Amino acid sequence: MKRFKRYLPFILDNSIWFLLVPLIILFNATTHNFLTLQNLINILSYSAILGIMVIGQSFTLITGNFDLSMESTLGLCGLIGVWLISSAGDPQYGSGLLLPPGWAILVLLAVGLLIGYLNGTLITKLKVNNFVVTLAMLITLRGILLLITNGSTVYSKNILYNSFGIGKIGPVNYPVIIMLALFVVAHIVLKYTKFGRELFSVGANRKAARASGINPDVRIRQVYLISGFLAAFAGFLLSARLTNVIATMGKGMVFDVFAAAVIGGVSLQGGRGSMLGAFGGVILLATINSGLNLMEVSVFWVEAIRGLIILAAMLIDAQKVRIISSPDLDVQADDARLPSGTPAA
After folding, report:
1. What CATH number corresponds to the domain at position 157?
2. DSSP string of 284-331?
3. What residue numbers bound the domain in which 47 lies?
4. Would you say residue 311 lies in a domain?
5. Is it the case that residue 124 has pLDDT exceeding 60?
6. What is the mean pLDDT of the chain?
7. Is residue 34 situated within a structural domain?
8. Contact criterion met (CB below 8 Å) for 243 and 267
9. Per the structure, how many domains does the chain have?
10. Is the distance from CB of 244 to CB of 310 less than 8 angstroms?
11. What is the torsional sign of CA 52, 134, 140, 286?
């Protein structure tokens, strides 16, 4: 029993793979087209935008923070990109500026960075609660989006801009390739760089991190910049893929982002998680969505199941914290949460 307890953190951290494998077997047994190449590509395509968002959210979660405003950042920045390159009035409802796509993309990414900077500054310098800051930002940005669109759908007819969302290399579209590349980069950053190790230290024990020479406030501001940038980039890719932006684009998406990250092993308490697990969480949600659609399950059941997945993610995270904090748990390292080379709490 004692030996089993030693491996409980590992089992819980990698629970995503223990869930994903039997789920794939189940859907493959109950549907005819689940493991076809086309459906696997569809799963990755569904995962692309969500995955990019999850990367940004994972960085903030690892430091013990979170960003509720990501979905509105996605919506607003996606709108800005399309709005700047489109003509005014019916039928495109753009700004009339007709900026080149390159400039529009730079502007929307700058807006994402600005949003991240404001979130990080308010939280670290003015000491406002991160829930209050990011919730207020979520509401404010959604209101700005509504003001710009006036409730209308803004359309993009710019072929170059749209190509980033619908272009392909072979059978795989650009957003999927970009998402996979970003996960690889994020994994390397978290696992093999000093910056990544310091993020884990900040999330595990902020006072100990400060005592070891790390400035937690700087690192927290940096992860909010990453979160804002990636949310803006995801908004750009989504608007390019859809070739239009509606006022509700991305609304409610933050719940899937949290679910994918947490069920993939990224702790809400901070100091714990991996990009490999977060990627697994993204694929799990996409797999469930695809499998239920192939089984022709009612859309109302799909929403209910998504809610249960979010609840399950929270329960798994709570159990991880409880078990790891238990004095009966005998682990070899002082803090099994941190990558090697990270200052212990």
Report:
1. 1.10.3470
2. HHHHHHHHHHHTT--HHHHHHHHHHHHHHHHHHHHHHHHHHH-TT---
3. 7-325
4. yes
5. yes
6. 89
7. yes
8. no
9. 1
10. no
11. positive
In the block, which residue shows the tokens 């072929």?
A: 159
Residue 187 lies in a domain: yes
Q: Is residue 345 part of a domain?
A: no
Say how many residues make up the chain.
Answer: 345
| The token pair that represents 304 in the structure block | 């209910």
Tokens standing for 334?
């002082």
Read off the tokens for 124.
């670290």
Does the pLDDT at position 345 exceed 50? no
**Backbone CA torsion sign across 301, 302, 303, 305:** positive
**Biggest CA-to-CA distance, the chain:** 69
Give the DSSP letter string of 22-43: HHHHHHHHH-SSTTSHHHHHHH
166: Cβ contacts below 8 Å, ≥ 6 apart: 173, 174, 240, 241, 243
At residue 287, the pLDDT reads: 92
Choose among 152, 53, 163, 156: nearest CA to 112: 53
